[in-house]
Specification:
Aminopeptidase; nine-stranded mixed beta sheet; binds manganese (II) ion
Length: 453
């Protein structure tokens, strides 16, 4: 009678550990080099081009093509077209932005002989996580003449790194609420302390500007037209004596970007299939590169037009109606030290496979995207048939947790949508953990679903 129960167990007892390890090695290389959405788009474009994908402008309308479209350097959609688009398509969509600290538009100040950069955090963070850790500055500065300068200080072995420094415990004995103790306006980055000379005002700041000018040919005003982020400078590593986890900054959600990209490259069937890499999920999917924007619809319209459909708007609706979307995003795996926030029967366990999340939302499913039972059944069938390890997981107890993904923005267009991804321990911290099993099973799940849904 045991088979009547739904039970999961550790994938280490079921999978080939060498295969799991090999996949994790490739991922570690990726996650070390892609800490921003721009770097991830660049990486994905290189991989896609190498695999024979062409820009949408070169697509000839055939029903055997590999096509992609980059959008404003921060988002991307790629498809293997194997039939008319109106037959629908299987999509795995993820986001490539992560919580981080941004520089303010006019960042550099000097106070007490120290030059500092003012910051504004991006996404849901616990502010105290970001104090006293080594940080890199990455991003771009665009000059008035349109020249884009890539900035990357802290990621190379010989680079200096940066720190947002906290108050020493001796002078911080007041028992305040964390929201009072850690304030955004105190999250100032230390840039330096050497004065340019003895005469000038703000001589330390001036010296920093001189260094930036020598290195990048920029002046202070150029920093206003910049996307500059602070990201953890440390490297991804295997974690634990048994090396069963990977620790890294930005698993959420570049782990799904990577696994879906590799899945698309390797997937092979007669169905249309694709991936979308969105920006801005961590701040609500707003803006022209987020999931609320129109760029991927624009891509579909272009494909439809090239395939010879005249009434593009009508056929776009038909396409979306027949489209299945895996909203590929991370979930919370149980951290045994904080397990009281979960309902154990409906929470993800590290190493038990990809997490299937029927609905998101919070407190009475508000703001949820919920997969229909019919879709869940289909997904379950594909995963079981392909021997993919999976489990169910909701983000915390009903009155405690909840959260959103990009799922609802694709659902409102008419597609069938379900949330699926690996469970993380310490999500949204500068060093998130994922089980290598869940990493590998996410890739295997996305591949099976692209091919078979
Ligand atoms: Mn996410
Ligand atoms: Mn997130």
């Amino acid at each position: 009678m045991k088979e009547l129960k739904f039970q999961t167990k550790s994938g280490w007892l079921k999978l080939n550990a060498d295969e799991v390890d090999k996949f994790a090695k490739g991922y570690i290389k990726f996650i070390n080099s892609c800490k921003t959405e721009r770097q991830t788009v660049k990486f994905a474009e290189e991989v896609l081009k190498r695999e024979g994908f062409v820009d949408i402008s070169e697509y000839d309308g055939s029903t055997s093509a590999k096509v992609y479209m980059k959008f404003r350097e921060k988002a991307l959609v790629a498809m293997k077209i194997n039939s008319k688009l109106t037959d629908g398509t299987n999509l795995v969509v993820s986001h490539i932005d992560s919580p981080r600290i941004d520089l303010k538009p006019h960042p550099i100040i000097e106070d007490e002989g120290i030059a500092l950069a003012k910051t504004h955090y991006y996404g849901g963070i616990k502010k105290y996580h970001w104090f006293n850790i080594p940080l890199s500055i990455v991003g771009v500065v665009v000059k008035e003449d349109g020249t884009t300068i890539d900035v990357n200080i802290g990621e190379n072995e010989d680079d200096p790194v940066f720190v947002i420094s906290d108050l020493l415990p001796h002078l911080d004995r007041k028992d305040e609420k964390v929201s009072e103790k850690f304030q955004a306006e105190k999250m100032n980055l230390i840039l330096g302390s050497v004065p340019l000379n003895d005469e000038e005002e703000e001589a330390v700041k001036l010296n920093i500007l001189k260094i930036l000018n020598e290195k990048y040919g920029i002046k202070e005003e150029d920093l206003i037209s910049a996307d500059l982020y602070l990201v953890p400078a440390f490297k991804a590593k295997e974690i634990g004596l048994d090396r069963s986890f990977v620790g890294a900054y930005g698993h959420d959600d570049r782990i799904c970007a990577y696994t879906s990209l590799i899945a698309l490259i390797e997937a092979n069937s007669d169905k249309n299939m694709g991936i979308i890499l969105f920006d801005k999920e961590e701040i609500g999917s707003d803006g022209n590169t987020g999931a609320k924007s129109r760029f991927y619809m624009m891509f579909f319209r272009k494909v439809l037009k090239k395939q010879g459909f005249d009434d593009v708007e009508f056929y776009l609706d038909e396409t979306l109606e027949k489209t299945n979307v895996i909203s590929a995003d991370v979930n919370a795996a149980i951290n045994p030290s904080f397990k009281d926030v979960h309902d154990p029967a409906n929470a993800a366990r590290a190493g038990h496979g990809i997490v299937l999340t029927k609905y998101t939302g919070a407190r009475g499913k508000a703001g949820a995207s919920e997969a229909r039972a019919e879709l869940v059944a289909k997904v379950r069938a594909v995963l079981n048939k392909n021997g993919v390890l999976w489990q169910v997981g909701n983000l915390g107890k009903v009155d405690v947790g909840g959260g959103g993904t990009v799922a609802k923005f694709l659902a409102e267009k008419g597609a069938e949508v379900i949330d699926m991804g690996p469970g993380l321990i310490g999500m949204h911290s500068p060093y998130e953990l994922v089980s290598k099993i869940d990493l590998y099973e996410s890739y295997r799940a996305y591949k099976a679903l692209l091919e078979n849904l």
